[in-house]
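Budget justification aside, the reviewers requested a transparent look at the raw inputs and outputs of the sequence design task funded under Objective 1. We therefore reproduce one unedited record. The lines immediately below are the structure tokens for a 322-residue chain.
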């Protein structure tokens, strides 16, 4: 954990590995697409970045940013990272040298019970990253049982999705995080001492659905492709298999590494010139980091370097490998 003038703050996962993948040269312009508590931005500036453009859809992150990272080389923008290419162009900022994305919920969001992202402390069922739109409570109390089950299965990979959805529907209205966690545990037959709390998958699924996180990731990768200059570096940290599959598929496709078609599975689109090269092997946190920060255990870093080829037209690379 590092400190700023405002006190302790969270150290981002694999910060050294991310900085290494970004290969920052002094004076370069970088994008931190998921600013959060500013940990990656601080590391970028310490490594010699001349300017960092920080994006975050969470108004709290943007409001606290100047106190977390009091540096005039930082520009903060309250916007989804999937819009980075448009916003950068509107501000007259040319192609950038490197982009970092840390996907999913931030520690700041998890640690504030009133945001409703975690069941570790009771709070209102909210889960909205941008503080706008449908809350988790509104979704659970309005959606039909089949829709809830689909969300839990698709985004939480929950094997007991139907039973949990049935239990949620029977208990409505559901308003609090502790209340939802208790419902899920009963429906899943949870026993004290089990390695994984089943509520984790349910909370993940609802959060991903409400914030359209997988669509945002797909669109954000395509936006990064359009925003990087030739030789620009992309580093993406994910925290579960659904996210990692999307990044893996994107980089594999955009680097020309997609397997050739066959008579059983023909190529559906014309091949395009690769927009990324030097796709690195995925990196996981060290044993020391995982011991110090259990949240890092599922993290995975993937990185690549932009070629000079024009960006592809389609940004959708959702993997069907489930």
């Amino acid at each position: 954990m590092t400190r700023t003038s405002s006190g302790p703050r969270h150290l981002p996962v694999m910060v050294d590995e991310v900085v290494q993948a970004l290969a920052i040269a002094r004076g370069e312009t970088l994008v931190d697409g998921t600013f959060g508590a500013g940990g990656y931005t601080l590391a970028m500036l310490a490594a010699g970045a001349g300017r960092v453009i920080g994006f975050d859809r969470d108004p709290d992150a943007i409001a606290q940013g100047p106190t977390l990272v009091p540096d005039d080389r930082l520009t903060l923008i309250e916007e989804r990272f999937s819009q980075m290419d448009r916003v950068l162009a509107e501000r007259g900022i040319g192609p950038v040298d490197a982009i970092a994305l840390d996907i999913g919920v931030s520690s700041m969001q998890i640690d504030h019970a009133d945001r409703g992202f975690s069941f570790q402390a009771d709070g209102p069922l909210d889960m909205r990253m941008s503080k706008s739109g449908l809350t988790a409570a509104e979704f659970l109390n309005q959606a039909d049982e089949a829709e809830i089950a689909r969300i839990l299965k698709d985004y939480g990979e929950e094997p007991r999705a139907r039973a949990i959805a049935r239990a949620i529907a029977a208990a409505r209205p559901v308003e609090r995080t502790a209340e939802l966690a208790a419902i899920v545990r009963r429906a899943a037959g949870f026993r004290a001492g089990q390695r994984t709390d089943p509520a984790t998958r349910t909370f993940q699924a609802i959060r991903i659905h409400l914030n359209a996180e997988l669509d945002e990731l797909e669109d954000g990768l395509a936006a990064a492709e359009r925003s990087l200059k030739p030789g620009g570096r992309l580093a993406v940290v994910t925290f579960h298999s659904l996210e990692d599959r999307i990044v893996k598929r994107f980089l594999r496709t955009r680097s020309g590494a997609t397997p050739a078609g066959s008579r059983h599975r023909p190529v559906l689109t014309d091949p395009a010139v690769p927009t990324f090269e030097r796709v690195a092997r995925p990196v996981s946190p060290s044993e020391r980091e995982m011991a110090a920060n259990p949240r890092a255990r599922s993290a995975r870093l993937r990185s690549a370097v932009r070629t000079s080829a024009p960006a592809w037209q389609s940004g959708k690379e959702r993997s069907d490998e489930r």
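The longest helix spans residues 213-227. The chain has two domains: 2-108+213-306, 131-210. Computational costs for records of this kind are itemized in the attached budget.
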